[in-house]
Amino acid sequence: MGNVTPKGSEEAEARLARVRCFLLDMDGTLYLGRRLLPGARRFLQVLRRQGKSFLILTNNSSQDNVAYAKKLAQLGLPVAPDRILTSGEATALYLRRHHPGARLFVVGTPALEATFTAHGFILTDEDPDLVVVGFDTTLTYAKLWKLCDFVRAGLPYIATHPDLNCPTETGYMPDIGAIIAFVRASTGREPDRIIGKPNPEMVEAVLVRTGLSPADLCMVGDRLYTDIA
Q1: What CATH number has the domain bearing residue 74?
Q2: DSSP bridge pairs for 133
Q3: Judgement on whether residues 36 and 118 belong to the same structural domain of the protein
Q4: 98 and 180 inside one domain
Q5: Distance in angstroms (rounded) separating the CA atoms of residues 195 and 158
Q6: Same domain, residue pair 83 and 96
Q7: Which of 27, 136, 175, 227 is catalytic?
Q8: Integer Cα distance of 172 and 97 in angstroms
Q9: Are residues 140 and 152 in the same domain?
Q10: What DSSP character marks residue 29?
Q11: How many Å apart are CA 129 and CA 150, to the nearest integer?
């Protein structure tokens, strides 16, 4: 009896053949911490050989695309910075469209702060127009206290992404979701808008960057609630 390919498999292969750009998650998909995951290098090699484009999407807003490109190169995955889109960059693009030149109170790393200043925003902890929360690995209680004061006062409240934890080689480290939960417990408020995957604002940033339509894209990730939902 000859080989029989299930109809569902044929349809899946046909869909993949039509994909023009693969959107790849990073933490937990390409690597864990400083360890490259099996198959990651070969997958990118296959995409390049087949003439397929890819864009690496990360909700991790603690670093910028240049830092991530450097990390990938150290892991043996050379990727140009313009092939990487972070939730921090997507948030800056969203705010530039809807709140150009706004005064921001940012709970984030120096890299995230630099992303916003590069897009023309003024960073301040006095009388801001809105607050932005990212994955802040430099977090202090003083930042949390001031953040809660501004949120409680009713300022627009934006989060770069929704992730509860960030995967590492040794387990998980608390991500922005833990900060959001802290603010909720203190103020009773949720973010007015969350930008990163799987939200429309991140998809819009992808479409602008690639010039493609949603039908041309395929998302590859490790978590349904952020990568696929």
Answers
A1: 3.40.50.1000
A2: 107, 159
A3: no
A4: yes
A5: 8
A6: no
A7: 27
A8: 34
A9: yes
A10: T
A11: 10
Over 80: is that where the pLDDT of 7 sits?
Answer: no
Is 25 annotated as catalytic? yes
User: Residue 108 carries which DSSP code?
Assistant: S
How many structural domains comprise the chain? Answer: 2
Instruction: Mention every residue, 6+ apart, whose C-beta is less than 8 A from residue 31.
Output: 37, 40, 72, 75
Q: How far is residue 119's CA from residue 88's CA, in Å, rounded to a whole number?
A: 11
Residues 120 and 179 in one domain: yes
Q: 177 and 99: one domain?
A: yes
Quote the domain boundaries for residue 168. 90-194
For 13-65, the pLDDT digits (tens) are 777 778 899 999 988 889 888 889 999 999 999 998 988 999 999 999 999 99
Whether 103 and 182 map to the same domain: the answer is yes
Predicted confidence (pLDDT) per residue in 64-109, tens digit: 999 999 999 999 999 999 999 999 999 999 999 999 999 999 999 9
Angle (CA) 87-185-63 rounded to 5° is 20
Residues 68 and 145 in one domain: no
User: Would the pTM of this model clear 0.85, i.e. be above it?
Assistant: yes
Asked if 27 is an active-site residue, the reply is yes
* 133-142, 184-193, 207-216, range with the lowest pLDDT: 207-216
229 — pLDDT class (breaks 50, 70, 90): low
Give the active site residue among 25, 136, 175, 227: 25
What are the tokens at 184? 């909720």
User: Quick one: how far is CA 87 from the chain centroid?
Assistant: 3
Instruction: Report yes or no on 60 lying in a domain.
Output: yes
